[in-house]
Amino acid sequence: MKEFELIKRYFAEQSITRKDVVLGIGDDCALIQPTERQHIAITTDTLVAGVHFPLNTSARSIGHKAVAVSLSDLAAMGAEPAWLSLAITLPEINEHWAADFSAGVFELCEFYNVQLIGGDTTQGPLSVTVTAQGYTPYDKYLTRAGAKAGDWLFVTDDIGDAALALLYIQGSVDIEEVHQANIQTKLDFPKPRVLVGQVLREYASAAIDISDGLAADLGHICSASNVGANLILDNLPLSLAMQESLPLMDAYKLALTGGDDYELLFTVAADNKVAMETALATTGVKITCIGQLDSSHKIKTLLNGESVFIDMQGFEHFTDK
Ligand code: ADP
Ligand code: MG
């Protein structure tokens, strides 16, 4: 099978066709006709085999995850996803792999009404790059920069499970059988918080998606917004798997420093808190208040009301050795 046959069979046959796509896959460029008076949010992410996912990750998971991490960035801006382009580099043309991979890509696209409008297919070490684009209403979007001292800090769902799954794969931690499938799913099939992000446009003062670990990403909000934070460790939402697999302080540390959660971390002014909680109830996604911002320009961790020190270096791709 040749490259163009692979593209035609596995990537050009998507069932949804959006009205704002004038021309999709097949020509030198895609053409879109965006809705007037909206901003277009654009984000690109690359996943490299062995760096961003373990080498034995299933093709379906790689497809799902490549789309999920980009939709998660759109969610963090409060954008509604619309179009994707997909650049894949493959060691060889493998039809089974391509079929499973494209199933992973399209399951999220179909759920969120996102159209794949183009891409590139090349040969080389396995890596996948997705560019996702979406809409925000004019002048209504979330950034990292709007948080104020006094705002409450919230996070969606549980954190640390994906990092726990990685530790398990690496053989550094034992996990009871009942929890294994759940945390593997958290690592392989993250759920971008697309609807939460759109609801938050009305209420949040700042938002970011957690890709490099909660502490590192909270640091981005704090430096962009020029604030500090008090993090209440007792409130960190930890799954049963986290609570039962690690001593509590290790679980907190992993929740703060482990990557790959793709949950949203956001801030809300005290005046908007109740309205935000009510509006988000419709999404069915759990949210937890994990602290409050101050003007200190530092992140402090509290346990039982007392300040505790936790070494919070997030995962770095390029660390000095
Ligand atoms: P060109 O050489 O002009 O860039 P290509 O042969 O790379 O064209 O691609 C042909 C068409 O297929 C283009 O519309 C391109 O966007 C699309 N395409 C290529 N690879 C992919 C892919 N992995 N997923 C989706 N569309 C793709
Ligand atoms: Mg090309």
Give an overview of the whole structure.
The protein is an alpha+beta fold. It has two domains: 135 residues, 60s Ribosomal Protein L30, Chain: A; 157 residues, PurM-like C-terminal domain (Phosphoribosyl-aminoimidazole Synthetase, Chain A, domain 2), CATH 3.90.650.10. Helix content is 34%, strand content 26%. The chain has a seven-stranded mixed beta sheet, with helices on both faces. Strand 4, helix 3 and strand 5 form a beta-alpha-beta unit. The radius of gyration is 20 Å and the shape is globular. It starts with a helix and ends in a 13-residue tail after the last strand. The C terminus is likely disordered. It binds adenosine-5'-diphosphate and magnesium ion (MG). The site of adenosine-5'-diphosphate (ADP) has 13 residues, from helix 1, strand 4 and strand 5.
Summarize the structure.
This protein is of the alpha+beta class. It has helices at 3-11, 59-76, 95-111, 161-169, 177-188, 194-200, 214-225, 240-245, 248-257, 273-281; strands at 21-23, 31-32, 38-48, 80-90, 115-123, 127-137, 152-156, 204-209, 228-232, 264-268, 287-294, 299-303, 306-308. It has two domains: 3-137, 60s Ribosomal Protein L30, Chain: A (2-Layer Sandwich), CATH 3.30.1330; 152-308, Phosphoribosyl-aminoimidazole Synthetase, Chain A, domain 2, CATH 3.90.650.
**Which outline best applies?**
globular
CATH class of the largest domain: Alpha Beta
In whole angstroms, how far apart are the ends? 44 Å
- What summary fits the major beta sheet? 7 strands, mixed
Mean pLDDT: 95
How large, in whole angstroms, is the Cα Rg? 20 Å
